[in-house]
Amino acid sequence: MKAPHRRRGAMWWHGKFKGMGYRLTTSRQAILDVLGESSEHLSAEDIYLKVHRIHPGVGLTTVYRTLELLVQTGLVFKFDFGDGRARYELSEGPKGARHHHHLVCTACGRVVDYTDFIDEEIELLNRTEKGLSAKYDFKITNHLIQFYGLCNECRGRS
After folding, report:
1. Is the pLDDT of residue 1 over 80?
2. Euclidean distance between CA atoms 52 and 55, whole angstroms
3. What confidence score (pLDDT) does residue 97 get?
C-alpha cells in the first residue's frame, strides 16, 4: 500500500533537513506541509493560522523563526509584493525545482505565477546571467523576477 502524500513529503523534507544538519521537528513539518499544500503566496500570519488549527502549541514566534531558517537554507523563498507583508513559498518540491516568475497587480494585489516562458525570455535571462557572472566574477545559482502593473480586471475598471 502506498503512503499518503504527506508521508512521502515528510520523508523528502526529512532527507533535506538531515543533509543540512537540521532536525525536522513537528512544527517545521507542519509549516512545510502548509506551504506544500498551498497554491497561494502565504504570509507568516496565514501560515500560523493554518498550522495552529492542527498544532495549537505552535506559536507565531516559532513560525517566524522557522520561516527564516527555511529561507536561509534555500528551501523557501521570501517575497515582497509591495503590500507590507512578506510572503513565502517553497523553492522546490519532491519533483525538483518549481521555477517561475511573478506578475503583480499594483491595484488589487493579485499575484500570477507563470512558467510558460517564451524562447526570447529564456535567451535573454541566460545571456544576462552569463554576462553578470563574468562581469562580477559571481556564480549565479538562481534568480527571482517580478513584474508590476495592472491586471486585466483592474485595467477594465479605469
Report:
1. no
2. 5
3. 63
pLDDT digits (tens, 9 = 90+) for 56-89: 999 999 999 999 999 998 888 898 888 888 999 8
CA-to-CA dists, residue 126 to 96, 101, 142, angstroms: 20, 15, 11
Secondary structure (3-state) at 66: helix
The CB-side HSE value for 108 (13 A sphere, CA atoms) comes to 13
At 18, which CATH number? 1.10.10.10
Same domain, 9 and 71: yes
Domain stops at, among 67, 92, 117:
92
Q: Are 71 and 87 in contact (CB under 8 A)?
A: no
Give dist(CA 143, CA 130) in Å, integer: 12
Taking every pair of Cα atoms in the chain, the longest distance, rounded to a whole number of angstroms, is 56
Task: Take residue 153 and report the three cell numbers written for it.
Answer: 480586471
Cβ-contact 81, 111 below 8 angstroms: yes
